[in-house]
Amino acid sequence: MRCPICDSPNPDGSTACAGCGAGLTRWKAAFTPSAAVLAVVWPRLRPAWVLGGCGGMAAALLLLLGTCVFFAEPALVAGEKEFAPAVERYLARVQAHDYRGAYADFGKAMREAFPEQDFVSLDASRQAHLGPLRSKVRTFVQSGVDREGPWGIIVYRGIFERGEATVSITLRREGRSWRIVSILYDSPTLLGDLSPGPPGTA
Prior knowledge:
With 202 residues, the chain is of the alpha+beta class. 47% of the residues lie in helices and 24% in strands. The chain is built from 5 helices and 4 strands, in the order H-H-H-H-H-E-E-E-E. It has helices at residues 25-31, 35-95, 99-103, 108-113, 116-130; strands spanning 133-146, 149-160, 163-174, 177-186. The protein has a 4-stranded antiparallel β-sheet. Strand 3 and strand 4 form a beta hairpin. The longest helix has 61 residues, at 35-95. 19% of the residues are buried.
């Protein structure tokens, strides 16, 4: 160590300075970090460390949240692009009075709720009351995943030949295909609907 009096270098273990003869033992004790010294220094450093750590964690969380928000909307749109073709196929087949063809795209829940002949009779009656679909505007879409797998809901405001109706269609992915599991036509001109229930119910 260096002598604190004359700054002369001294070998480790020296008890006296080779330059000026000053005792070095008491200075070694003063410059050796002890548990007490560390205990005093640590509480002074800890608040800055904790604050810096929390700030870093907060920044990471904000970045993660921003990433989730950025990717959430594209994920929902991608879901709609996956199940919308099944909806369009159903509407086109009903428009062509191909009710049995429309029934072929129904999922397990829909088939359990409506045997094919009952659905054909009911949807033909609905078509007779409302007439052909002239145009539609999507008013709501949502998709998600639950314990039974991916699902999607799409709602249209439909303009039919004889009136308007809100058409709500719920789908589930069964294997690699999207299947319709409920259909609801909400219109003053109709007395009932074709809905077996919310997603996941039979």
